[in-house]
Amino acid sequence: MLKILLPLTLLSVYALADNLIILLPHHAYANLLIRLVFILALWIFMTITIKRLFSSLKQRNLFLATTFKLPVNEKNDELKELNQLLDALPTTTIKVFQAVSESSNQAAYFSDELYGNARNRSQFAKQIAEAINHVVDGTETQKRAVAEVSLAVEGVSASIQLIATNTGDIQMRAQRTTDTTKLGKTKVGDAIKQINEIENETSAVQLAIGKVSNSSGKVSEIVGLITDIASQTNLLALNAAIEAARAGEQGRGFAVVAEEVRKLAEQSRQATAEISKLIVDNDMNILHAVSAMNEVSKSVEMGIQVVNEASQTFDQISSLIFEVSGQIEDTAAAVEEVASSSEEILASMQEIENISIETAEKSVVVQNASVQQTSIGKIIAGNLENLAKIIQSLKVTASNFD
Fold first, then answer.
1. How far is residue 349's CA from residue 358's CA, in Å, rounded to a whole number?
2. Which of 75, 195, 306, 307 has its CA 20 to 30 A from that of 50?
3. pTM of the full predicted structure?
């Protein structure tokens, strides 16, 4: 029965080793399992070899004792040496069997450990498969969320682009307003120069009118002097006429001259009267002109003040427009930066979506691999259980040699 059992056991061990090598090409326990299998094979081989050697020695002893006719001393020496060898053989065989039995016990222990680990790995693989299922579900949810966020980001990006366009238009209009304000300020400066020139000319006219007024006063004095002279001349002509009348015929010619002088004096008086009237009218006109020039001067001063205030207002407007333009430029830059950031976010969301899709695909692959690993773990556990049964059978067989 031993001859039948040992070959069958050896074949079972080799077949199990082949299955383990196929199932565990990269498994962490493959090396240890293969070592255990080869220890068992070596034990079986040594058992068969020692048994055959023991049988051969017994046959040789019998053959030497019955067949060859040796001298008594030589026969005794030969048989004695053979008996010593046969006496030592059971002891050596027992030691070998004890070592093999101990190795078999260790192999059984490691087999139990591997069987337990295989069951644990199978459970872990099942848990990993369940976790991967949750990951796949979460990945699908993440894909939907990423798609929704991508749509929202696209809407925000479009709004930001519209804001950027409107901000650019406002910036252009603000620049035009700034240019127009600068032009208006320049025109106001020109108006101030013109008003200052008018003020200077008005002052010159006032000065000229003052001189004319002074000259008119002097003319009035001269006219008064001429009027006095004409009155005195007229009076002298009257006295001359009286004296000529007293002289009679002799004074007739002198009376004619006196009459002519009187007429000239009267004409001079009338002329001076007209001149005086003209001077009075001229003085009145000069007074009106001076008054008007004073009003014009006041108006010019008020105009200068108003223009200065307008210039200051333009300065304030220009300053405010400059500040607004700067703020618009900052806003435009910020909007451009936000637009760029939104584009980057959109690209990142697209990349995340691609990664989510790839992750989902890989999760499915990992899920299938986990299911396959679970199946392989079950097969390994079954093979390890068979290995434990074989080792137990070998232990029973080894105990027969004790």
1. 14
2. 75
3. 0.41
